[in-house]
Design goal:
The complex is a heterodimer of chains A (337) and B (362). Chain A has one domain: Rossmann fold, CATH 3.40.50. In chain A, 42% of the residues lie in helices and 23% in strands. Chain A has twelve helices and 14 strands. In chain A, the strands form three sheets. Chain A has a seven-stranded mixed sheet, with helices on both faces. Chain A has a four-stranded antiparallel sheet with strand order 3-4-5-12, with no helix packed on it. In chain A, strands 2-6 form a two-stranded antiparallel sheet. In chain A, strand 7, helix 5 and strand 8 form a beta-alpha-beta unit. The two termini of chain A are 22 Å apart. The relative contact order of chain A is 0.15. With 362 residues, chain B is of the alpha/beta class. The two termini of chain B are 40 Å apart. The chains are: A alpha/beta (337), B alpha/beta (362). At the A-B interface, strand 1 and helix 4 of A face helix 6 and strand 14 of B. Strand 1 of chain A pairs antiparallel with strand 14 of chain B. The complex binds zinc ion (ZN). The site of zinc ion (ZN) has 9 residues of chain A, from loops.
């Protein structure tokens, strides 16, 4: 296996403008209280990465208790909304509507330049190398940014593009960017899933579902947030950007490897090319005077040069210790999902 | 199961022996090494002192990991005895020796002959080749390669530093890998300019070689090969019309060349990015599959009667012509070349070139 380090001039504010992000978070938390207020709708879960039954409470956020797996260290909401309740939320909540109408619009151009294009290049390079399903169809699951399809089509790699469960309200934009919204031509050559795994009721079932859509030799490209990352390890329960239902699963790097194996997928790359861990910690501390940081981290942020911060972030990436994780995997020959 | 004998149980011989033991369809049955202590490194293996005895044994293939003054003789003898041959680089001390190998190989087209240009099988090089062949970064514009090692204690007493035994210095010993990679990415080169020096070590061969090479399409490759690189280094940059690749470090058993990585980036002239500071991805590799893949290809060629793909006698001859073109352009001359150590303080004029430079590597 290999892993990747990325250098780029990415700023948190470009892809998540503070005012828009805080309004989105406010709506998400308020809507979560409204949609998931009935304790009878919550279902007890074991570790969503490795299925271990050994886990213990670590913190509570907005009334939801997060637990940590004693085997793989993943952190997750143990009593979580039932799949139907989550589906209802992702169809009808005001937070999701705000995301499609405001968030996506405001950050689209910057995200295309810094993120969608990089996603497409990553996908192209690895599919050139490891993809074994020929020039078949590609699908993105849970599309948030339709411009992705223009970038992927630019690769000239796939015969067709599809979107599966795009954010409600983005169907037209997906079609305009060249992605079909109708029935899938099974099986697919490649599937991408960006920032989706963290809010699935069952990550294992989710990956197995995707695996079933793939042709033999087909590939999955996935990004998510990992609890192994520096900002989450430092901020822990103080991370303002962790909330239900967006973050039911904060799987560890080790847990993700186990999960992909269980889903019949062979991991060919697992990297944490995140560039924002230190910046996220700095922002969290700047916005909330109650946030307590370890003395070393405070010293590093307040007294040292940007150059040192860059080196530190590079170290985090090099050692798979940033909270933004990306995984590329191939449908195993024996990969019965 | 292929029965294999190894000539030479130095560092390279032991690496090859371990791979032969690991491969499911090969077994090491005999070795030859003049050092009586060599037998201790591989308990249970019969080790003869004289490599000629090994040639006469019942073997399917011979792996030659001997010093350069034995390589050509051993390869030729093994071919004449009807053995397939995998030989370490360099393929000989000079062009005449490699030509002699070619004649011996031509007489036995039924046998496989492969030379150990294992760098082609390193993960970073394979990744680079895949990316370039996929075409997303456009066409190659130029290459720049640095390959150097520190020599080490006693380097001046090593057979590698003895012109009679080695044939040449660091360029022939290590720089040849970088030249082979230049050919791997670009094909043959037709023009050479060079400077070769013995800058530090009191030895009869060069310890530094600088060269510029041009291919028929006008693409230029630049080489620095050194045995005064006090921190071991491998660095190969390939710039293309739409982006670039930079391979840094080389996974080896000692890890002295650092972690192996390849940096990949696209040329980025869009608004929103600092000019000249594109987004880079640096891919790190955890393992060196080169020895295993090289042996696997050799075995596959024998068992399935396939032509050798990498490290053919033609590859070997072409890269030796590059080495000797570099020696010749510097004016040192082919054959036993006259690279002389000159203290920096010595202001006497350099010796005139005594051979007209032969710029073509043919
Ligand atoms: Zn677990």
């Amino acid at each position: 296996m290999k892993h990747v380090v990325v250098t780029n001039d990415l700023r948190e504010a470009d892809i998540r403008p503070p005012e828009i992000l805080s309004e989105f978070m406010r709506l998400s938390i308020a809507e979560a209280a409204r949609f998931f207020d009935d304790p009878a709708d919550l279902i007890q879960s074991d570790c969503p990465a490795c299925a271990s039954e050994a886990h213990e409470p670590v913190f509570t956020k907005h009334g939801f208790e997060y637990e940590q797996c004693l085997r793989c260290q993943s952190v997750f909401v143990a009593r979580r909304p039932a799949p139907e309740r989550l589906e209802d939320y992702y169809r009808n909540s005001r937070a999701v509507r705000y995301r499609a109408e405001t968030f996506t619009q405001a950050t689209g151009p910057a995200r295309r330049l810094h993120i969608q294009r990089a996603h497409a290049n990553w996908l192209g390079r690895l599919y050139d190398e490891c993809g074994g399903a020929g020039p078949g169809a590609y699908a993105d699951v849970g599309t948030h940014y339709p411009m992705l399809f223009e970038e992927v089509r630019g690769l000239g790699l796939f015969a067709a593009c599809h979107t599966i469960n795009p954010l409600p309200g983005l169907e037209d934009a997906c079609r305009q960017a060249g992605a079909a919204t109708g029935a899938l031509p099974a099986p697919l050559a490649a599937i991408s899933s960006f920032e989706q795994l963290e809010h699935q009721f069952s990550p294992l079932e989710y990956l197995m579902d995707l695996n079933r859509l793939l042709a033999p030799g087909g590939m999955i490209f996935l990004t998510t947030r990992t609890i192994s990352g520096f900002d989450l390890q430092v901020l822990w329960d103080q991370a303002p950007y962790i909330y239900v239902p967006e973050h039911l699963n904060l799987l560890s790097v080790e847990g993700l490897e186990l999960l992909f194996g269980l889903a019949g997928l062979e991991v060919v790359e697992l990297s944490t090319p995140g560039q924002l861990d230190l910046e996220l910690i700095r922002e969290a501390a700047a916005r909330d005077p109650h946030v307590r940081l370890p003395a070393f981290v405070r010293y590093l942020l307040e007294r040292r040069e940007p150059r040192t911060h860059e080196d530190f972030q590079h170290f985090l990436q090099r050692n798979r210790l940033s909270s933004h994780v990306r995984i590329a995997a191939v449908k195993s020959p024996a990969g019965e999902a | 199961m292929l029965n294999i004998g190894i000539i030479g149980l130095g560092k390279m011989g032991r690496i090859r022996a371990a791979e032969i033991a690991r491969h499911p369809r090969t077994q090491l049955v005999l070795a030859a090494d003049p050092d009586p202590a060599a037998a201790d490194t591989l308990p249970g293996l019969t080790v003869t002192r004289d490599w000629r005895e090994l040639i006469d044994a019942e073997l399917d293939a011979v792996v030659v990991c001997a010093p350069n003054d034995i390589t050509a003789a051993a390869v030729i003898a093994a071919l004449r005895a009807g053995r397939h041959v995998l030989s370490e680089k360099p393929p000989g001390r000079n062009l005449a020796e490699v030509e002699a190998i070619r004649r011996a190989a031509a007489a036995r087209p039924d046998l496989k002959l492969k030379f150990g240009f294992n760098h082609r099988y390193h993960a970073g090089i394979r990744e680079a080749k895949r990316i370039i062949d996929a075409g997303r970064l456009g066409r190659i514009l130029w290459l720049r390669g640095i390959y150097g090692k520190c020599g080490g204690p006693g380097f001046e007493h090593s057979w590698r530093s003895d012109r009679q035994r080695a044939g040449g210095g660091i360029l022939l010993d290590q720089g040849i890998h970088m030249l082979d990679l230049f050919r791997y990415f670009c094909g043959d080169f037709v023009e050479v300019k060079s400077m070769v020096a013995t800058a530090h070590w009191p030895i009869s061969v060069e310890d530094n070689a600088f060269a510029l090479l041009r291919d028929p399409h006008g693409r230029i490759a630049m080489l620095h090969s050194s045995s005064t690189q006090w921190k071991n280094r491998f660095h190969l940059e390939i710039f293309l019309s739409e982006g670039y690749l930079s391979i840094n470090g080389l996974l080896t058993s000692s890890r002295s060349y650092g972690d192996e990585s390849i940096t990949v980036a696209r040329k980025q002239f869009d608004d929103g990015f600092a000019t000249g500071k594109p987004r880079e991805e640096i891919i790190y590799f955890d393992t060196d599959p080169s020895w295993e893949l090289e042996l696997a290809e050799f075995v596959d060629c024998i068992e399935n009667d396939q032509p050798v793909r990498h490290g053919t006698i033609d590859d070997a001859l072409a890269v030796m012509r590059m080495v000797y073109a570099i020696y010749e352009d510097d004016g040192a001359g082919a054959g036993p070349c006259r690279v002389v150590a000159r203290p920096l303080a010595d202001q006497s004029p350099p010796e005139p070139a005594h051979t007209p430079p032969d710029r073509a590597t043919r």
